[in-house]
Amino acid sequence: MLKRPLRIKRAYNSPEENRRRGGVEKSQHVNGLAIDIDVTRLTETERQLLIKELINHGFKGIGVGPTTIHADHETNKKRGQTHSEDGLYFKRTKRLFRPF
Prior knowledge:
By secondary structure, the chain is an alpha+beta fold. The relative contact order is 0.17. The C terminus is likely disordered.
C-alpha cells in the first residue's frame, strides 16, 4: 500500500467532455469506470505497487505512461491491452507490464 496521497487527473467525463478531450466513443470514463492517476511524483517501485493494487482491486485495463497510469474495468479490449492518457500502449506480462 502506498503511504502518500494520489492525484487523480481524470475519472468521470460526461459524453460532451469526453468528445471535447478527444476520447474514444465508448470510453469507460463516460461510464464512471475509469481513472487516470498522476504518477509524476512516484518512484518506479511505487508505480509498480500501484499497478499491483489496481489489479488486486479488480481493474482489468491498465495503461502506463510517463506521467499517468490509467485503470478501467473494460472487458471488451483485446486481452492485456489498454492505453494511457499519454498514448502509450502496454501489454500485461508475468513481469508486470512491458511495451509491445
